[in-house]
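PROTEIN DESIGN WORKSHEET
SECTION A - STRUCTURE
LENGTH: 196
TOKENS:
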């Protein structure tokens, strides 16, 4: 188990963190300290030990990597990804089907969510990149109509920083970045085959 491996690998760090925080820190709960990063983003002062080291281990980067590994462990199989992110993906695909069938018209659909939900959605779509979803990230699904044959096309964008525009993601099941909507609806994460 991952937590046991962390206990043996970072025992000295966890002992130090237990002394500094007053909480009993181990491999099972060390990832909870990643909220320190959010406090830093919002300009809250931190004790000096946060940016320090225990032996040859940098404290904050190690906490963040433990969080990354623990989070990704939640989605380390297709089944886990479908279980955790399938409901939201099915909802997205239902909107797309309604748009395709002319049952609904809308300019945008917005979901506001936590990073873990976006990790689950990435996993269900087969787009997990091995990184934590950063604070205030977004997954955007853009649907456009072809001027040539009136077909609907789909693109998926990922915004994980405010320093640059969202970037276009490849839809792994289709090995492309732009796809006809009908192909997206019948690929590996089709609601009829996985989420109904």
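SECTION B - SEQUENCE
RESIDUE ASSIGNMENT:
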């Amino acid at each position: 188990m991952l937590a046991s491996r962390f206990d043996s690998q970072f025992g000295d760090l966890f002992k130090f963190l237990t002394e500094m925080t007053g909480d009993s820190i181990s491999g099972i709960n060390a990832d909870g300290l990643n909220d320190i990063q959010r406090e830093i983003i919002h300009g809250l002062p931190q004790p000096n030990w946060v940016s320090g080291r225990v032996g040859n281990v940098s404290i904050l980067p190690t906490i963040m990597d433990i969080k990354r590994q623990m989070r990704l462990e939640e989605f380390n199989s297709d089944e886990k990804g479908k279980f955790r992110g399938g409901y939201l993906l099915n909802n997205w695909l239902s909107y797309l089907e309604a748009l395709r069938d002319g049952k609904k018209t809308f300019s945008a659909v917005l979901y506001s969510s936590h990073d873990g939900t976006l990790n689950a959605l990435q996993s269900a779509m087969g787009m997990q990149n091995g990184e934590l979803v950063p604070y205030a990230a977004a997954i955007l699904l853009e649907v456009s109509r072809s001027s040539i044959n009136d077909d609907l096309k789909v693109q998926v964008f990922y915004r994980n920083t405010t320093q640059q525009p969202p970037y276009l993601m490849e839809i792994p099941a289709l090995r492309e970045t732009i796809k006809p909507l009908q192909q997206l609806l019948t690929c590996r994460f089709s609601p009829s085959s996985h989420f109904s």
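SECTION C - NOTES
The first strand starts at residue 53 and ends at 54.
The chain has eight helices and six strands.
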